[in-house]
Design goal:
- With about 140 residues, the protein is mostly helical.
- The protein has one domain: Four Helix Bundle (Hemerythrin (Met), subunit A).
- It has 6 helices and no strands.
- α1 packs antiparallel against α3, α1 runs antiparallel to α6 and α5 crosses α6.
- The mean pLDDT is about 90.
């Protein structure tokens, strides 16, 4: 099933990110290769999460959103994920765009905090919610 494959892909990316995660913000900011790799994993994880959201929407027969961010609102409106989690992923999508397209200045502290404190918890909550809804 494509949904399970996408979940496995996301879990693999998270695991690989954890392996290269610097110990401190100082290490993150001063090791440019590690910083670039962490940013790339953040991008890949968020892109895969968006893909997963679209797979769920298609699987459940919901209206396909016109924009990526809307996918999280649909999942929240359909009670698959909490609204707070939808908001976090919409913000992560915006951050991913900043990194990917170099819009404006990248806030290194914000990125570091996101990848070390929030990303794994939020993605784990999303995957858990999706697994529960897939069993229904």
């Amino acid at each position: 099933m494509r949904i399970n494959d996408k979940i496995r892909e996301i879990e693999d990316y998270l695991s690989e990110l954890e392996e290269i995660m610097p110990e401190s913000f100082h290490d993150y900011k001063t090791d440019l290769k590690t910083k670039a790799a962490c940013e790339r994993y953040f991008e890949k994880i968020i892109e895969a999460v968006i893909d997963l959201a679209f797979l769920i929407i298609k699987d459940k027969g919901y209206k396909i959103p016109e924009e990526d961010k809307e996918a999280f609102d649909i999942l929240a409106n359909e009670k698959i994920i909490p609204q707070e989690l939808a908001t976090k992923f919409k913000e992560a999508k915006g951050m991913r765009n900043i990194i990917s397209h170099e819009y404006g200045k990248i806030d290194d502290e914000l990125i570091f905090h996101s990848i070390t404190e929030e990303l794994k918890l939020d993605v784990s909550e999303l995957i858990k919610s999706i697994k529960i809804c897939s069993k229904q």
